From TrEMBL:
It comes from Actinomadura fibrosa. This is 2,3-diaminopropionate biosynthesis protein SbnB. NCBIfam families: dehyd_SbnB_fam (TIGR03944). SUPFAM superfamilies: NAD(P)-binding Rossmann-fold domains. It comes from the Bacteria.
Length: 341
């Protein structure tokens, strides 16, 4: 007889314990999820944006998804972005994720998901950086971070966890306080010198690997000449670069249909030229050798962020917490289980 699963709640502390120090392992999970997605073994509908007319900078996003293979789960991430939180001393983003049983559809876990989201985002960026750089034949030694929040910190951690070592590090943020704070973090973890740049231009020109992790709602970097040295760009925040820069670069995305929405920089480029010919391929294409990034053009990776990645990491966290004996279930969560009472 089919049983209704117990419902568990997994805290952020438990999530952190499950993933901290396992950056390479989490990256391999994300790579496996990308491969399942590329092989058609996932369902990843459009993200849904809840916006507020009186608070245009705020939003809450729903990312439903399903993954087959070893993950074998359905679910949804519900993540908010309220940039004003930072000034009030709390993180910008907060999130929960629900896992649903693949056979019965019953939800069986609710996980704190801001850490899962940051980890899968950073793992995706590190995977892209390693794959694209290795295909080009040389790993960058000078890195620059535009935007210095939690995501930037996680990306740096995951780059280091995937074997990147840097001779020079650069930082730029609209907030001098945040830039100095991130510089202090990097100086505690890196041997190379860390420089705070007053402008995005000087950082870009001084970096071979550039990480955009901002809350920009529209392009603020416009001149393709800043990228004449053909760097590798992790365009994680998606809306930093002008269409002109996108069109002058080799573009790799995680999913073409998803990336061409919501006025991302690639979406703006598509609107400008009326086609998608500027997209060289997906990260799956690079992983499988179908697309090779050139060394003589800037290479821009623009990941929209797929819910299937969140599910892969969340399933791993659930299994780790369950195996440790620390899983906290809610007795009687499902109550009306008899058809006729």
């Amino acid at each position: 007889m089919t049983q209704v699963p117990a419902f568990a709640v997994i805290s952020g502390a438990q999530v952190h314990e499950a993933v901290a120090g396992r950056e390479e392992q989490v990256t391999r999970m994300v790579e496996a999820a990308y491969r399942l997605h590329g092989e058609g073994l996932t369902v990843n509908p459009d993200s849904y944006f809840l916006r507020f007319p009186d608070r245009p900078s705020d939003r809450i996003i729903a990312l439903p998804a399903s993954v087959k293979g070893d993950v074998g789960v359905h679910g949804i991430k519900w993540i908010s972005s309220f940039p004003g939180n930072v000034a009030n001393g709390i993180p910008r983003a907060s999130a929960v994720l629900i896992l649903n049983d693949a056979e019965t559809g019953y939800p069986f876990a609710c996980l704190e998901s801001s850490i899962i989201s940051a980890a899968r985002t950073a793992a995706s960026a590190a995977l892209a950086a390693a794959t694209l750089a290795d295909r080009r034949g040389d790993r960058p030694r000078r890195v620059g971070f535009v935007g210095t929040g939690l995501i930037a910190r996680y990306i740096h951690t995951y780059l280091a966890g995937n074997g990147f070592a840097f001779d020079e590090l650069a930082v730029h943020d609209l907030s001098a306080e945040h830039a100095e704070g991130f510089k202090g973090y990097l100086e505690r973890t890196e041997k190379g010198p860390v420089t705070v740049h007053d402008s995005a231009e000087s950082l870009i020109r001084a970096s071979d690997l550039i990480v955009f992790a901002t809350v920009a709602g529209e392009p603020h970097v416009h001149d393709p000449a800043w990228f004449a040295h053909n760097p590798l760009v992790l365009h994680v925040s998606l809306r930093d670069l002008s269409p002109e820069i996108i069109l002058a670069s080799c573009n790799v995305v995680d999913d073409v249909e998803h990336c061409m929405k919501a006025n991302t920089s690639p979406h703006l480029a598509e609107q400008k030229v009326g086609n998608r010919d500027f997209v060289a391929g997906t990260l799956y294409d690079v992983l499988t050798g179908a697309t090779t990034p050139p060394a003589d053009r800037p290479v821009v990776f623009s990941p929209f962020g797929l819910g299937v990645l969140d599910l892969a990491v969340a399933r791993y966290v659930y299994d780790e917490v369950s195996a440790s004996g620390a899983l906290i279930t809610v007795p009687g969560f499902f109550h009306e289980l008899k058809r006729y009472g």
